[in-house]
Amino acid sequence: MKRHALAGAMAVVCATVTVSVIEGTPHQLPGVALGSPVLLHAERALALLAVTAAALSILVQAARGRLPIELSSSGLRYEAEAADDAAAAAADLQEQLDDLGRLVVELAERLDALAHRP
């Protein structure tokens, strides 16, 4: 399985570099290339690789029946993650409620003990 994934990743990297080379080098390089055609091709290939990886990740998750519910600058968010976050928050709140309940019982016992002192 790892060999197939590695071979696929290498194929995608080769494809992105090939696409960048086929696109060619413009007569005037953009500022991000810093005057280097090699850097321009590397940046193009990296951008294409990032887009390809994002698209493949969405497709793999979609094949599993999970579609993203949110796209933000921090990434994609899926329904299961939202449910997990809600469950964790509910567990935290329940723990806080239990702590407060124990505190109330302890305070009530102290008040009873003070009330029964002569």
Mean pLDDT: 81
Distance between the termini: 78 Å
Task: Please give the largest β-sheet.
Answer: 2 strands, antiparallel
Which of globular, elongated, flat, extended, rod-shaped describes the shape? elongated
The portion of residues assigned to helices is over 70%
Which structural class do the helices and strands define?
Answer: mainly alpha
> Over the alpha carbons, how many angstroms does the gyration radius reach?
29 Å
What is the overall number of helices? 3
- The H/E string reads HHEEH
Strand % is: 5-15%
- Low-confidence regions: none
Strand order of the largest sheet: 1-2
Question: How many individual domains?
Answer: 2
Task: Please count the beta strands (DSSP E, at least 2 residues each).
Answer: 2
In short:
This protein has 118 residues and is mainly alpha-helical. The protein contains three helices and two strands. It has a two-stranded antiparallel ribbon.
Descriptive account of the structure:
This protein has two domains: 1-65, no CATH class; 78-118. A hairpin with a 2-residue loop joins strand 1 and strand 2. The protein has three helices and two strands; from the N terminus they run H-H-E-E-H. Helix 1 crosses helix 2. The radius of gyration is 29 Å and the shape is elongated. The longest helix has 37 residues, at 79-115. With 118 residues, the protein is mainly α. Helix content is 73%, strand content 8%. It has a two-stranded antiparallel sheet with strand order 1-2.
